[in-house]
Amino acid sequence: YEVRVDPGFVPKEGPLGLEQAQSFRFETYRTFAFTGLAKDEALAPDDQVEFQFSNPVAYDDVAAHVHFDPALAVPDYYSSWDQSNDTIWLSLPCEPESRYSGWFDADLADEFGNKLGHRVDFSFATGPFPPSVSMTTGYGVLEAYAEPRYPVDVLNASSARLQAARVGKDE
After folding, report:
1. Are 135 and 157 in contact (CB under 8 A)?
2. What is the pLDDT of residues 71-118, one digit of tens each?
3. Residue-wise pLDDT tens digits, 26-50
4. What SS3 string covers the chain?
5. Distance CA 91, CA 75 (A)
6. What does pTM read for this prediction?
């Protein structure tokens, strides 16, 4: 929208009118729509899925009106979040290297009460978990009578560099 005020316009107070035209633009809410996913290929299975809308929509409304195939359970805590945003991040229990289809039903509404009015489909695919290596850090003790083993968690890593040293009794 644009508001234009012509030269000579007389204000509510005072006798002097505008010497030259003035204008300003503004916008109200947009037509409510799902505008897409921020990323729809090779999401890490534990990444949040980022849904983008034209207008702010509440998390609890998204949780109530989103559906997935294969089925994904939207965590219960989203059902009590009434915060609105035009980007909604959902942490979903996705499997690695899987394809998901989903849809929003027609009754999903933005914070202004505007409904989608029709089913809206989307899809995304997950990739593998990213490579990671983890272990307890800091000082540790391996008993002399036990086998010299130390737990290390490895996921999708082809190699890792590990450094250890034997410590004598006097050290």
Report:
1. no
2. 999 999 999 999 999 999 999 999 999 999 999 999 999 999 999 999
3. 877 789 999 999 999 999 999 999 9
4. CEEEECCCCCCCCCCCCCCCCEEEECCCCCCCCEEEECCCCCECCCCCEEEEEEEEEEHHHHHHHEEEECCCCCCHHHHHCCCEEEEEEECCCCCCCCEEEEEECCCCECCCCCECCCCEEEEEEECCCCCEEEECCCCCCCCCCCCCCCCEEEECCCCCCCCCCCCCCCC
5. 8
6. 0.74
